[in-house]
Fold each of these.
Amino acid sequence: MKKSDIQELIQKIESFNAKSHEDLEQFRLKYLSRKGRIPELLAKIGQAAKEDRAWMGQQLNKLKQLANHKFETLQEELTESQASSFNAREDITLPPAARDIGSYHPLTQTLQEMKSVFFRMGYTIADGPELEDDFHNFTALNFPPEHPARDMQDTFFIRKDEENPANDQVLRTHTSPVQIRLMKQEKPPIRAIMPGRVYRNESITAKSYCLFHQVEGLYVDKGVNFAELKQTLISFAEQVFGKGIKYRMRPSFFPFTEPSLEMDIWWETETREGQWMEILGAGMVHPNVLRAVGLDPEVYSGFAFGMGVERITMQRYGIDDIRLFYDNDVRFLEQF
Ligand code: DAH
């Protein structure tokens, strides 16, 4: 072993640079590990001439210290630069940020609840078009030609047919026309609900909007009676609003039912004093309606109802303005 050998090693070690942890590991294996260059040289001291041992030991220890120091410095540098490049992206030790996954619209939630109540009572489901003709929306439902509901005030007329007014096209003003379509299509016993969107050309207030949702119901068979209708509605209300719900039924009028009723529930919110709110109309299917679809009113009877999904939802959640359903304001929606 010559002094110049050691000198050469010192230079090599001093000028070494590691780009990665792998480079550094190569360095460690080459110089510092048990079979590395430095331990190898240290082991040779014993075989060297006596007078050389002192300077060899001195030089080699210096070399060893240098290599160790180099190793530690490089390791620190590498770890630091790795950490700072992670920081630039994200702190991998943080828990993941929760993602907004959205939720069902409150109307959808109420509709799902209403459906499951009626499914349990043995009802099936049906639907019909939102763009209706005059015949299904009015005539077959026993609306006289001069009935105010046909007035431009209430109905969005889409197309007038001068030759045949029964073909006038309207945005359906209620889901009752689906009853007509269903009774023409199927034979009793019929027991179905018909949910859907309806449109009215009305002034917009906290309780009414130009479009809303209804769930129509129809039960037609031999011997269906008014007591069953009342019991169905009470049972519905208790399941959707809870047993303690305050409700009332009032006699009413619809061209397509006789007798007819309306049901109100007590509506109270944080911002509003309690008041009655109408949530549905119902009645025994009018004989003229049964005749219009080819059923004999002497043989068959039935009851029907039409419920307002928005108002039912307003009472369930204490919502004080129907317009909130259609604003798409996430501050409202994320509460459900
Ligand atoms: N169609 C009525 C409305 O929109 C509600 C209604 C009343 C539906 C009585 C019915 C019924 O089926 O029997 O106001």
Note: Residues 174, 176, 216, 254, 257, 281-283, 304-306 surround 3,4-dihydroxyphenylalanine (CB under 6 Å).
Amino acid sequence: MTNLNDHKVLVTGSSRGIGAGIAKVLADMGAQVAVTYSSSKEPAEKVLASLPGEGHLLIQLNVGDPESVDAAFKTINEKWGSITGLVNNAGITADQLLMRLKPEDFDRVIDTNLKGTFLCTKAATKPMMKARKGSIVNITSVIGQMGNAGQSNYAASKAGTEAFAKSVAQEIASRNVRVNNVAPGFIVTDMTDVLPDEQKKAILANIPMNQLGNVEDVAMAVAFLLSDDSKYITGQTIAVNGGLYM
Ligand code: NAP
């Protein structure tokens, strides 16, 4: 099993869904985890309580707000003294066909998914570069790779994140800080629960493995990219999508 002893990892948006699954898998592998939520405090407290091991943190964080990001990293630096890993997982959708897509819904998705990744990456990179060790993993999406009608804002935020990761990876590789992406396909969470049955059926028909993924499938790829097992891998994207997009 991948070993994450001595790793201290902030997982944004870990009160629910994929983020909560990542927090659990990382803690199972020995990492200390900072669990964050934006509004779901109670579910986040339950995630925290379920983690094995000690030294985990619970932090309120709005990734799109520079002040909130500064405050979260201040708390982490005070409590942990260092951070070895960041998982930019927090993300939202606001789906609409282009003709009906409001500028504020475009901004909202870009602010959380892309700007949030920028702000947290910038804050985490400084101490990692100083320590000459660190790994950043962004949760992007198959939608950023293949596009999807009704999700132009979301697709742009995820494709933008992949390009952002490649650029930052080149800036900081010489300091032994790596930046990679995990691009899930359709995973069973609140985000996919809301899809109409007809749409779910159509999605399944296009997945060669004929099933949706689960949060652990994504978390295992994240754990690999955070660990020293992937120490020569940077600027890459691992797709966890059942073959939906190759
Ligand atoms: P989810 O169940 O809706 O959970 C979203 C998480 O993000 C929650 O913890 C939420 O916190 C947090 N969050 C939302 N806005 C935030 C903000 N402004 N600042 C900080 N945290 C915020 O979503 P999910 O399905 O697990 O998705 C997680 C990531 O995987 C997202 O980046 C998503 O785009 C990506 N993804 C998901 C799928 C899928 O099939 N589910 C597929 C591909 C990619 P609160 O609970 O406090 O609201």
Note: Residues 12-19, 37-40, 61-64, 89-92, 112, 139, 141, 184, 186-187, 189-192 surround NAP (CB under 6 Å).
